[in-house]
Amino acid sequence: MSQKQIHSTIHVNALNSGYVNSHILFGVDFEAKEKEITVIVGPNGSGKSTLLKSIFGLCNVYSGEINYQGISIAGLSPHEVARKKIAYLPQVNNVFKNLTIKENLTMASYTLDAKQQSTRLPEIFEMFPILKKYEKSKADTLSGGERQMLAMAMALIRQPKVMLFDEPTASLSPKLADEVLSKIKQMRDDFGITIILVEQNVKRALKMGDYVYLLANGKGVFKGKSEELLSHPELGKLYLGIN
Ligand SMILES: Nc1ncnc2c1ncn2[C@@H]1O[C@H](COP(=O)(O)OP(=O)(O)OP(=O)(O)O)[C@@H](O)[C@H]1O
């Protein structure tokens, strides 16, 4: 019987980071294992986005380590991190609204050669049929959910190994949010992508995450399996509004 081997892909150790003149994360430890979905939850302003941005080279790292497959990526610029096949999907402004769907995907695949582009595009359209249907339409005509799908497709076309999602279901209806989250699961299951997900709907996030981190006031408060957080007598109530 084959045994699933799980390695740590992203490893953050004693991280202190933030923005110019504002120290946000204090001694945060974090780990995302290969081919798993690791969820980051916590109250508003607790530093969830800052952790993603720190990994992607968008914050100032004061001290601590950020490693990818055992190699330090702390202090690299976002484009250097992206070159290592780590993709970051911010909450907003993640597509070019005045370009068509196909043009957006072509822009996103600029690092691929023409042959790779011609094979990747049909694969992407197979996974996101809605994008094929509207390929000639401008992105600003898409609904919120469809736009999120386009942003995911733009990241996926470059064949990332790790994807960082910042609240991909923000302002979507429950039905669309479920569709977006099921695509994210498919990315793990079909492509073996390591996922780090910040999600505002805690119950939904915990249901799909393999592992969960709870941040509060810029510090790690809990790490463990989702079920453990859900059944914790105090933490859920204290920080996440779970009764
Ligand atoms: N560019 C920035 N410059 C200075 N401070 C910032 C910047 N971006 C965020 N912050 C501050 O960092 C703190 C943590 O914000 P962050 O967005 O990481 O939290 P979050 O847990 O993702 O919150 P939310 O759930 O509301 O999105 C907040 O106090 C916020 O005001």
Structural features, described:
There is one protein chain. The longest helix is centred in the last third of the chain and has 18 residues, at 174-191. It contains ten helices and ten strands. Helix 3 (101-108) runs parallel beside helix 6. The protein starts with 7 loop residues before the first strand and ends with a helix. It has two domains: 1-85 and 160-243, P-loop containing nucleotide triphosphate hydrolases (Rossmann fold, 3-Layer(aba) Sandwich); 94-159, no CATH class. The mean pLDDT is 89. The strands form two sheets. It has a six-stranded mixed β-sheet, sandwiched between helices. A four-stranded antiparallel β-sheet has the order 2-1-4-5, with helices on one face. The chain has helices at residues 48-55, 78-83, 101-108, 114-127, 129-133, 144-156, 174-191, 202-208, 226-230, 235-240, and strands spanning 8-19, 22-33, 37-41, 60-68, 71-72, 86-89, 162-166, 194-198, 211-216, 219-224. It is an alpha/beta fold and 243 residues long. The structure holds adenosine-5'-triphosphate.
What is the class of the largest domain in the CATH system?
Answer: Alpha Beta
Largest sheet: 6 strands, mixed
State the oligomer. single chain
> Structural class given helices, strands, pairing?
alpha/beta
Going by CATH, the homologous superfamily of the largest domain would be P-loop containing nucleotide triphosphate hydrolases
What's the total number of strands?
10
Secondary-structure element order, N to C? EEEHEEHEHHHHEHEHEEHH
Question: Helical element count?
Answer: 10
Sequence stretches where pLDDT stays below 50 over 5 or more residues: none
CATH topology label of the largest domain: Rossmann fold
Domain ABC transporter: 10-242
Keywords: Amino-acid transport, ATP-binding, Nucleotide-binding, Transport
GO molecular function: ATP binding; ATP hydrolysis activity; branched-chain amino acid transmembrane transporter activity
Organism: Nitrosopumilus ureiphilus
